[in-house]
Amino acid sequence: MHKVRPLPRRASEASPKRHGRPVRFRLKTGAIVAVAGAVIAGSTLVEAAPSSAAPATGTDVITTVVGGGASTVLNNVESTAASLGSPLSAVVDSHGNLVYADQNDNLIQVAAATTGTFYGVAMTAGRIYTVVGDPNGAVDDSGPQLSAVLEDPNGVAVDAAGDIAITDTANNVILFDPSVTGTYFGQPMTAHVVYPIAADADPTEAVSDQVFNAGLQSPDGITFDAQGDVVVADTGNDIIRLIPRAAHTAFGQALEPFTIYTIAGNMNYGYTGNGGPATAAELQLDSFNGVAVDPRGDVVFSDVDNNVVRMVAAASGSYLGRTVTAGDIYTLAGTSKAGYKGAAKPATKAWLDIPQGVAVDAAGNLFISDSANNRIRFVANTTGTYDGMAVKIGDIYTVAGNGATGYVGNGTPATSAELNTPSDVSVAPSGALVVVDSGNNVLREITGGGAVPTVSAVKPPTGPTTGGRKVTIKGTNLANTTAVMFGSRSAQSFIVKSATKVIAYSPVGAAGTVAVEVRSTTGVSAATTTDSYTYLLTASKKNRHRS
């Protein structure tokens, strides 16, 4: 029997209190549910006839890539033949495979992009496979990955090495599944065996900084940072927490394994603190509560019941056109008023309605699953173009969904499509977007409708290790550029001049030669002999970019 996840209540709606804060409910019901524009019968989904959609402004096309079928087989089945059980979150790994949390089936699954062995499982492209979870197993959420018993896993994250982190939400546990044998989070671990890295052995449920007496309450969204730490939305406690993989310093704190750290929220339920220390702020988290880390290391999260997206600055500097101070909290999008308002206007003046998933691409652009508005929204980190749209830094735009509730639009521009309470959004290495269309029990992908970019020239081909060199990139199909990479680092900024020319400012780099890669909504440029850029130890100051 499938569970139907209701939308979170808005902050203005009355609800009973627990420990001075609202109680969150999970509704269980039968397997047949009628929704506007679609019918879900045992999670088999039938696309409805189109409604009067708003005109599309972008060229990206949306398609269903997982789910929508009738098959109840949960392993080694064609991805679009499967019937999913309320997926809440998804991420694309470095191989292009789609990893998602199937909440009601209590599984972590992979839709394989290529044929090979991933997460210890042999896979064929175009089919789905279980990589963590056994719904018929014993009552233990640790052990061999295909024997672990999960209960309502809401969140999943994958790092570059192929390690998996999971919020085992109903069990109030954070799990880790390493790709290779080694020591992680202070524990010796065996590859493809699931281990708890944060839990609650204290029956009083008191919040503690000890990882195994953490007092977690319905942990939700989860992600890795660049150091391999795990960042999680501790939704029931209204705090954002960090579990360090190894000893280091972050957010002004000296971090040690076996300790869990609060980086945002004071456990009081409210909306305060902007521009001040993040740990003094009041939050109103609710399920599904997404969390992401941007290229600067800032932690971005949805403050669901406040109808805003907020960030904790990892370092002082600038993000989305505003000045930020390390350790402080800021609202990036939304005013706390529920609704839909503000297209092509400053994101901090826009209205959101139950924002859930968040994602940040390599260029620092922010994506939001604006769930009750049935839209995916986008906040630009640079002024230029995105998907053929002229965009301004800090302004908000719609990149998918026309606002109607339903299941319409596969094979058409994403902004013409109907969605049904999308709970999460993820950015693939290629720049494509993956949307967890939760109310429709499907995963949908948004890809460009044009050709893949190419790079034919990089001028000048050299620059200082300190970065800031103005570099002209020439090629083809560059109009929808979403990021410019110098090796593994994103350009400081870039401007799309035309379909054949992009101006980028080089990031800081080590002495040596790297490939310049252009990422766009249509794909990623292939490596060639014409895309090299060499970092030199010294260069004239006149070539340095001033923002």
Query: How many DSSP E strands?
Result: 53
Strand content: 35-45%
The general outline is globular
Mean pLDDT: 85
Overview of the structural elements:
With 547 residues, the chain is mainly beta. Strands 45, 47, 48, 51, 52 and 53 form a six-stranded mixed sheet that branches. A five-stranded antiparallel sheet has the order 40-6-43-42-41, with no helix packed on it. A five-stranded antiparallel sheet has the order 7-13-10-9-8, with no helix packed on it. A hairpin with a 4-residue loop joins strand 35 (366-370) and strand 36. The protein is globular and about 60 Å long.
Describe what is shown at a glance.
With 547 residues, this protein is mainly beta.
Which keywords apply here?
six-stranded mixed sheet; about 550 residues; disordered C terminus; single chain; globular; five-stranded antiparallel sheet; mainly beta
Write the layout of secondary structure elements.
Layout: E1 17-18, E2 21-22, E3 32-35, E4 38-41, E5 44-46, E6 61-67, E7 77-78, E8 87-92, E9 98-102, E10 107-111, E11 116-118, E12 121-123, E13 127-132, E14 143-144, E15 153-158, E16 164-168, E17 173-177, E18 182-184, E19 187-189, E20 193-198, E21 219-224, E22 230-234, E23 239-243, E24 248-250, E25 253-255, E26 261-264, E27 291-293, E28 299-303, E29 308-312, E30 317-319, E31 322-324, E32 329-333, E33 345-346, E34 355-360, E35 366-370, E36 375-379, E37 384-386, E38 389-391, E39 395-400, E40 412-413, E41 424-427, E42 433-437, E43 442-447, E44 454-459, E45 462-464, E46 470-476, E47 481-486, E48 489-490, E49 493-498, E50 501-505, E51 512-520, E52 523-524, E53 532-536
Parallel strand pairs: 45-53
Antiparallel strand pairs: 1-2, 3-4, 4-5, 6-40, 6-43, 7-13, 8-9, 9-10, 10-13, 11-12, 14-20, 15-16, 16-17, 17-20, 18-19, 21-22, 22-23, 23-26, 24-25, 27-28, 28-29, 29-32, 30-31, 33-39, 34-35, 35-36, 36-39, 37-38, 41-42, 42-43, 44-46, 46-50, 47-48, 47-51, 49-50, 51-52, 51-53
